[in-house]
Batch of 2 targets.
Target 1
Amino acid sequence: MSLPELWFILIAVLFIGFFFLEGFDFGVGMLTRLLAKNKDERTQLLTTIGPFWDANEVWLITAGGALFAAFPNWYATMFSGYYTLFVIFLLALIARGVAIEYIHHTETDKYLNLWHWCIAIGSFLSPFLLGMLFTSLIQGVPIDETMTMYGTFSDFVNAYSVVGGLAVVLLSLVHGLTYIGLRTTGPVHDRALSLLNKVYVVLFIGLVVFAALTYVSTDLFIVRPLATPILLGAVVLTTILGIIFANKRREGLAFTMSGLSIVFTVAMLFIGLFPRVMISTIDPAFNLTIDNAASGEYTLSVMTKVAVTLLPFVLGYQIWSYYVFRKRIHPKN
Amino acid sequence: MDVLLLARIQYAITTVFHFFFVPLSIGTIFLVAIMETLYVVKKKEIYLEMSKFWGKVFLLSFAIGVVTGILQEFQFGMNWSEYSRFMGDVFGAPLAVEALLAFFMESTFIGVWIFGRDKLPKWMIAASAWLVSIGTMLSALWILAANSFMQEPVGFEIIDGKAVLTDFMALLTNPQLLVEFPHTIFGALATGAFVVAGISAYNFMKKRHLDFFRKSFNMAMVVALISGFGIAFSGHDQAKHLMESQPMKMAASEGLWEDSEDPADWTLIADIDVENQENNWQIDIPYALSYLAYGKFEGAVPGMLSLQQEYEEKYGEGNYIPPVKTVFWSFRIMAGFGGLMVLISMLGLWYSYRRTIEQKTWFLKALVVSIAIPFIANTAGWIMTEIGRQPWTVMGYYTTAQSVSPNVTAGQVLFSTISFTSAYVILAIVMIYMTARVAKRGPYVEQITDENVDLLSKEAFKS
């Protein structure tokens, strides 16, 4: 395996890790409005993600840093090309991140309410915009011979990308619900599991539409005639298993399944992209690929050593922190 | 307005705003970690109360530091795509290591530190606080390694018009980093210390929780004094190093147009005429510039005009003189307030030792106002560093004008600048308001649950 190939996989892993982890805290964030009925329940929900959400978000920051280091051209083209999308995404992340922390220092209902809305809206917009971004990436965008992307509004916002955005929102929502099922007791817990049935139906429809549009709007089925249908099938399978496990009150397995749905979805996008990293709609010759977008051999080999050394520690203490805070959060009183 | 100018304005606003909270976080968590350690060692409840109280100030600051930090990371690609292409091979690596090594550590152990108190033994909580503190400093190390490369490129080659890393260790042993890192860290520790001292002084005036705030105040002043000297010495090292790496920045920060005499006078203040490239008048202190530049009372310092000529021969036609007035005055503001911090901390420790601090109302008031000093000095220092490097983003290799994204329009940047700036203003107001409320309530107030108090009413401000 060449170093650019390895780094493509690592970046895919970082994004998969991000969507898996932050996925459930995006879901919990949205559910503070959709599921919780009062202040105490909202607090109960937020407590489940309290010790983790910040570190979960670092997966995205690390993915961004790794993109910059390993594929500077990918980083430069994508971030400048999707400028406005990233501006709104950043505002959503800012609102959400500050609100989750500042809500601890707030007492009056008026301001609690304000922060809760920031959390809910931020937690909806962030996965939605990222879903749009990734869907748009596999659709292809106008990239010229200087690797510069001159996108227009319809390059980011079209039927397919909106469905893609909603799919990621729904995946996060389901993942949040199974997480709440796993991490709480009391009324929210029961309500989460019953809401799960309904959201799963919507997700299922969403995924079918998404799969159909993927067939129409991308070349994923052509370039990966095997992997794409298999992974889509795996998403459908984990979705069905998720419903079954949730209804059998096997919360750990239900959470695993909702997580796997996310893993397979994101993996499908990255496998479909490979070895391209950004697809040009102007001319395939202008595609950004793992070779023309990558850093030099030396940088990649140093980065590999650093990552191989540090990642075990990072994973170790993150898993340890999940172990420390493994107990379910009970309702107040 | 053109894209370049707007992008620069947005970058400046974001960075300055971000860097209010970074040093405050580094400084406060360091003190909090000391308090947690004392709680483990001395087993006195008061240290736990101190850690919890000052921990609140840290968390309020850290949250904003984190979210604006993500913006910082994305901004390179968004607004400076050409810079990212040119520099990614070198610049991306420290950024990625920063995330892997520092951000994961900070964010995970902040969770453990806040939420783990009733689940884990005391020493593990103290250890978590230290890991957060070390994380914040490691983060500073890597981002400053990246910044130092921009000031003084090392360990690379230009291949096909791009900077390509050839020696990773050279990034970490960059002479610029060795002076920039301690200077920044001491500045950050002083920032945390001055905030703790100012809030303590406020409570001395109110004559509340005297024991609690005495301990906090003394700890803060010791850190402030040590940091103050650290800032001064590392600052001097940095000035000496500038003579080798960026003499133009040095000359601009001194308003020195012509080459100096030997020994060189230091200009205290001057009326700079940028258009005619001269100073209308100036007040000089003999020998001082030689000392600043070389650490001895001899040696001439080259002026901007001869450096301009030298650079034109080296890099071709162009204006290589940075905005002189900005660099000149920001240096004076930084150094002046830096000196003031040393004086204030000496005075604070002296009064505290004499046990008269609580009666010195004028000094307590001054301490409250002094909370602003480190923030001003930090900002001025970075303005000098970054504006003084202009017109370059990577000194000698890549200019700011070359760096900007070609596909982002002025309208887009205007939209983002307005949006981000509005967000910063709101965040700043909320953060200052909440920190002030923490300060006013003191450590022993349980959370008030009276839901009828309007936070913006007069009653709310009394407490």
Target 2
Amino acid sequence: MFSIRRRQKSGSGEPAPDALPAAPSLEPLPIPSGDVLETALLSSGGPIELRSLDVSSPAIDSLKAAGVDLIVPLIGQGELLGALYLGPRLSDQAYSTDDRRLLGSLASQVAPAMKVAQLVQDQQVEAKERERLNQELQVAALIQQTLLPKELPSINGWSVDAFYRPARAVGGDFYDFVELSDHRMAVVIGDVTDKGVPAALVMATCRAMLRAAALRHDSPSAILADVNDGLVDEIPPAMFVTCLYAIIDTATGEVTLANAGHNLPYVRSGDGVVELRATGMPLGLMSGMPYEEKVYRLQDGDVMVLTSDGITEAHNDDGEMYGFGRLMGRVGQKSAPGQMVNVLIDDLEKWTGPDAEQEDDITLVVVRRTASAEASASAFDAGPDDAVVATFTLRSEEGNERIAIARVSEAIAGLGLEPSRLERLKTAVGETVMNAIEHGNHGDPDLDVDVVVSTNDLAVKVRVTDMGGDGEIPEAATPDLEAKLAGEQTPRGWGLFLIGQMVDEVNRHRFNGTHTVELVMNKKGAEG
Amino acid sequence: MSESEFEAVVTRSDGGSVIELKGVVNRGAKEGMEAAFEEASAAPGEIRLDFGDVEYINSTGIAVIVGVLAMARAEDRQVGAFGLSDHYREVFQITRLSDFMNIYEDANGPS
């Protein structure tokens, strides 16, 4: 902002302020960036008499018209921060060399102060903008979190898990579970282009339309087609929604799905990993779009994984994307039941690095058919009176058996196990977990060992599960110490023998690639 | 488990040697245990293993002890142990290690 002020009339002595005419002021007269006057002021570095300029420009012409005689540039760090405009002296004399020096000196003191003032003003503007953006992001996050499911479905024979973590800018990811008639459940995952409040509002609209359409149609393709036609008229230009809609018959395992341009879901079965491919345009782009429908049957133990592009499009430090290939490979690797979400998120975080800022929302939905698992697990359980006192998971790394010992000890403290029996159980737990790490999971740190500790009135039970259900499980044999001391046998081979000697009962169980050892230790010995 | 979690210190005397064991006795203790045994073998008499500062012994540690007992047997050397907790005494009995080494209450005491 620039202003023009007339200099006070100089007299023979000190001027009396009340005797001077008021200096008139004008509206600010800006100098447009790139104007020839700006160049002239920057190159001169000091006051310029306007009439000495023999060029014309919009700024020069308007200042001349306003009666400006002298311009004193305010320059800081090579930048024209402002200028003082002065009209003719009241004495009608030209500005003297001393006047110019004085004005130049004044300008050199004013310019830094002005620069500071400008920086403060810029910071205040930025702070207000940041605050506004933060408030907007909070609103967007609130909309999303309000509409995402508060609870996961609990269906006999099925395990459902979900993970959602918004990016700082809050994208438009959503997922939903809808209980339908005839033991059917809809599983929906979607992603709105754009971020912030606009995306959140479209997400809310789309979710409501999907729920309403589910009341009118039985098939995923019809539901997506209906919502697409409705969204076309509602959605802002250049926005659209990708969405995968699956209906699961929880009695038969049959999955019927349609896809509106979303990431394909993966199914891991005993035969490996497959993509469930169905084609269709994203929602909200063009009306009248058809949506292909596919049917797949999940068998006991099969896992279906639905993801958003926040996973596949995450970058590492070298700028490489996580990608579909890596995701599919990771889904296909063995993981303990119920650990798929943790496995995938751990792997993603290894890829991006621990301090990377999340680029987009990350959403994962994992559906597992567990009917047989539950049936056989319940058969494996000793009885309905058992109370689980601890569950934890360990990576298959040497030494973690001691962590297992410590955690089991902590969990069963106060349960009434005799001290000598506690020590024996600790040794058995250490050996069992060590076997799970070394032999069950072959020391692969990406494979987990799950430990469940339970108790009833009579006993403490520790169940250790690894992923070695496909391998041979050797029987415990009494080591031949004489042969070992004579060098005829390896000194090793004490683990299974010790386990069997330490506890009252050892049970083993295999299911769907997993191997579980159950250690049962009565709280009191036969002598007690 | 790293080898640094185990330490063996040999004290030799006319009546025999003591190997003071510290930390975790597992497969990581093999090298240190064997080196200590060789050092202790320079003196005549029984070699006693002091388990007083041992926190944890697992099956791979038992294998290490079996290896040392095999070395002792090869040179017809007596091996003793003291400082064992009640639990590890029981483990030594179950594994029959105590059939092949003398178990003492302390460094000088009788079993």
